[in-house]
């Protein structure tokens, strides 16, 4: 049998009394109602349901813009911007602590000298590594903003330029 959405309904109340609400769920043709009292503190935190009634799907996810209860795989964020005066596709990656640029794109620009010092970085999977050749300062320009960051230079990479949390924390 198909489950129906859980509906939360509010009862009438005075401004000084606690909020009462009932959550009704239906599973296998059996209806269960649970009643709860909420204090004024909860009401002040906007945690009480308000008309119009909020509807929750049976899988536990909400449809009101709240945080999802199941894992989502969001698309990466890409922009086109100038890196050292050359238009480049840039990816923002909140899962990366550092910023990186591919050597082949860097060679097309007028760039600051690379400080060669090979290092290995651990990937998010916890077992794979990739090597950087060194670091250099890159200048990113979009709209009328010019920013810079020290980026690791890599031979092979999935994108031309990746801006990680070092960049995001510096500018946002």
Structure annotation, total helices: 3
Number of strands: 11
Tell me the domain tally: 2
**Helix coverage percent of residues?**
under 10%
**Estimated radius of gyration:** 26 Å
* Secondary-structure element pattern, one letter each: EEEHEEEEHEEEEH
Mean pLDDT reading: 74
SSE class: mainly beta
- Percentage of residues in DSSP E strands: 35-45%
Under CATH, the topology of the largest domain can be stated as Cathepsin D, subunit A, domain 1
* Highest-level CATH class of the largest domain: Mainly Beta
Principal-axis shape equals globular
Major sheet: arrangement of strands: 5-6-11-7-10-9
Largest sheet: 6 strands, mixed, barrel
Q: Separation of termini?
A: 49 Å
At the fourth level of CATH, the homologous superfamily of the largest domain is Acid Proteases
User: Spans with pLDDT under 50 lasting ≥5 residues?
Assistant: 1-25, 31-46
The CATH architecture of the largest domain can be named as: Beta Barrel
Biased composition (Low complexity): 24-37
Biased composition (Polar residues): 1-23, 38-48
Region (Disordered): 1-52
Distinctive features:
172 residues; mainly beta; Cathepsin D, subunit A, domain 1; 2 domains; six-stranded mixed barrel; four-stranded antiparallel sheet; 11 strands; 9% helix; 45% strand; globular; disordered N terminus; Peptidase_aspartic_dom_sf
């Amino acid at each position: 049998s198909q489950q129906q959405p859980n509906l939360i309904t509010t009862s009438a109340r005075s401004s000084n009394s606690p909020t009462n609400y009932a959550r009704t769920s239906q599973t296998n043709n059996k209806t269960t109602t649970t009643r709860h009292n909420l204090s004024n503190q909860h009401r002040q935190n906007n945690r009480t349901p308000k008309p119009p009634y909020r509807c929750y799907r049976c899988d536990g996810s909400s449809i009101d813009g709240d945080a999802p209860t199941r894992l989502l795989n969001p698309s990466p964020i890409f922009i086109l911007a100038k890196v050292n005066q050359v238009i480049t596709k840039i990816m923002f990656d909140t899962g990366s602590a550092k910023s990186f640029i591919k050597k082949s794109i860097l060679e097309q620009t007028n760039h600051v000298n690379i400080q060669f010092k090979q290092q290995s970085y651990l990937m998010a999977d916890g077992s794979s590594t990739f090597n950087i050749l060194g670091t250099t300062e890159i200048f990113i320009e979009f709209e009328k903003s010019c920013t810079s960051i020290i980026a690791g230079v890599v031979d092979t990479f999935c994108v031309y330029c990746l801006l990680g949390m070092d960049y995001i924390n510096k500018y946002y």
